[in-house]
Amino acid sequence: MNTQMLNPNEIQKAAEIIKNGGLVGIPTETVYGLGADGLNPGAVSHIFLAKGRPQDNPLILHISEASWLGQYCQDIPEVAWQLAKRFWPGPLTMILRRKPIVPDVVTAGLETVGMRCPAHSMCRAIIEAAEVPIAAPSGNTSGRPSPTTARHMLDDMEGKIDAILDGGSCQVGVESTILDLTCDPPRLLRPGGVPLEELRDVLGDVALDPAITRQMEAGEKPRAPGMKYRHYAPKAPVTVVKGMPVRSAEYILEHLTDSGWEGVICFNEFAHWYSGYLVERLGGVVDTWEQARRLFRALRAMDEAGVKHIWAQCPDESGMGLAVVNRLSKAAGFHIVEV
Ligand code: TXA
Ligand code: MG
Fold first, then answer.
1. pTM over 0.85
2. Which of 36, 50, 208, 252 is the most buried (most CB within 10 A)?
3. What confidence tens digit (pLDDT) does each residue in 67-83 have?
4. Whose CA is nearest to atom 33 of ligand 1?
5. CATH match of 238-338 with 3.40.630.10
6. CATH topology for 4-212?
7. What is the pLDDT of residues 270-317, one digit of tens each?
8. What is the CB < 6 Å shell around ligand 1?
């Protein structure tokens, strides 16, 4: 299959492919998604094949307006509407009880479904034109860092999907925040583009799923099935160094070997410390939004350079920092050094 690269004025073409049961790479404000008609089980099953995704890992349905929620979900709590009003369109996915119209293959047999209304205007235009909810996981091969440009998605999906609509670089850079509203208090399953502090503004109490901060043990079942899998991983092993920025920068400097085959992902302030090594700047120490935007790009750049080991500085967990720490920790298989 020849994967076509579509430009922003080919929304209609992207929508036609989806309507006809094909697969299209769609830009969203978080990361690129691998979209199919969410009501067409055959089309959705091809997503799992193209990504090499385990069948027990459910997909999110993307809608263009909050008013579509009632078509696919039942027992929608009042608070869901409040959250939609404040955060949609935007990087928040709500887990709600599904209606029977949602195919089993989308939810991996669960009685709940993840719903999201993305902020990217081209993404919403595709959904509107296709007139169906679009089921879409992140557009990477399973286990790899998520794609934040059309080019990154093509690197993983060339020859496996019909098309990718190039909507530019993703503005958020990490995936949506996933919030389970079927339990009380609501539970954060994955930190992402809407910071936890902002959810607490609306909801008061929000529980944190343990899978966010530590590796699941054998037999443990995270509420977001995807959180149990190795994820976001570049080819080389990653060591995350946590602590005061100057201390973590020093620790990395002390532990780099002479081989030159190592890479460093660091805050901009320390980039000049590591000459002779491949350096990817994550953003300024306090700019966790920039860090989120650059993280997956940095991990992919390390792969392209073929480094044998990656060291990464890590922000603290406030604001967008929680999502950055979570993705880095998972990329490192929770190989974390505290200094
Ligand atoms: O920003 C995003 O959310 C991107 C863009 C494309 O929208 N999508 C994305 O999808 O990150 P994916 O499939 O890569 O990650 C979705 C996560 C997985 O960990 C999955 O297990 C979890 O959401 N999930 C989906 N439906 C769920 C459900 N009903 N209950 C619990 N977790 C669910
Ligand atoms: Mg993903």
1. yes
2. 36
3. 999 999 999 999 999 99
4. 224
5. no
6. DHBP synthase (3.90.870)
7. 999 999 899 999 999 999 999 999 999 999 999 999 999 999 999 999
8. 28, 30-31, 33, 57-60, 91, 93, 95, 107, 110, 112-114, 116, 118, 136-138, 175-176, 178, 189, 223-227
